[in-house]
Amino acid sequence: MMKANITVTLKQGVLDTQGQAVKNALDSLEGSGVVSNVRIGKFIELDMNESDKKKAQVILERMCKKLLANPVIEDYHIEIDKIE
Amino acid sequence: MKIAIVQFPGSNCDHDCKHAIGQILGAKVQYVWHRSDKLTGFDAVVIPGGFSYGDYLRPGSIARFSPVMKEVARFVTKGGVVLGICNGFQILTEAGILPGALMRNKSLKFVCKDTWLKVGTTECFLTSDVEMGKVLRIPIAHMEGRYIVDDYTLEQLNNENRVIFRYCDKKGGIAEDANPNGSIENIAGIISEGRNVVGMMPHPERVCEESLGGTDGVLLLTSMLEATKIY
What we know:
Order of helices and strands of chain A: EHEHE
CATH topology of chain A: Mth169, Chain: A
Radius of gyration of chain A: 16 Å
Oligomer: heterodimer
Shape of chain B: globular
Distance between the termini of chain B: 11 Å
Distance between the termini of chain A: 7 Å
Order of helices and strands of chain B: EHEEHEHEEEEHEEEH
Number of helices of chain B: 5
Shape of chain A: elongated
CATH topology of chain B: Rossmann fold
Strand order of the largest sheet of chain A: 2-1-3
Mean pLDDT of chain A: 94
CATH superfamily of chain A: Phosphoribosylformylglycinamidine synthase subunit PurS
CATH architecture of chain A: 2-Layer Sandwich
CATH architecture of chain B: 3-Layer(aba) Sandwich
Number of strands of chain A: 3
Number of strands of chain B: 11
Number of domains of chain B: 1
CATH superfamily of chain B: Class I glutamine amidotransferase (GATase) domain
Strand content of chain A: 25-35%
Largest sheet of chain B: 9 strands, mixed
Low-confidence stretches of chain B: none
Largest sheet of chain A: 3 strands, antiparallel
Radius of gyration of chain B: 16 Å
Number of helices of chain A: 2
């Protein structure tokens, strides 16, 4: 079994409206100047019935490119942990 | 002539489309459930608005894996006419049938209002009967309508006359004030490379009767019906 942690973030240069709104709220909470930038993404946790890490990586790449992330606007990062 | 209206779980403009194209314009219309793997005998396909799969993950991202989308892709390859409205536009971009992506509105608000649209080209099934540069009043209703696309593709869209509508003011001026969602270059709708697929955020099916406040949608949907006879 493999556990995969996938982080999906907006590409640099893509306007993150949610991040901007949250930054404005954080400015109200903490005072302006504390936070200079906020980017909001998604975190996806997957359990896989695959014991080969390399194979899992290939499958996960495909899943990220085709569904979990939209390559037009998002980047993704995959971390794989083997569960005994 | 028969028009397919694809239904996903969460589609909510399917009945409006059927009413506009079927009852008002008098064309034959048939719903096609998203699990269907047959799309034969149709002259055009409409992918209506709504919230397919609850907009989970990203709007349109899950709908594109419904069996019917393989058929839609095949239909497009054969030159079939496809119109994606609102969520339909989002689904077509997620499926890679149209370029770019639709992101959260710049205002972070769900925007539901009439917009003015400037017709950017009449070399398209949807605008072939409309005057070039005409300004139409068609409503939008969306949370994720901010069109973005990479610079290279944007240049292609412009050079190939593939921006079918831009948000404008009442007189047709393209200004940031008239941009309801922050779309790049006020883009409200685009055409595929083969010119047989259109994706647009505004809802033409909602303005097909005077009693509902306008009839500009009729101009577009009639063009589609006329053009599909020729195709």
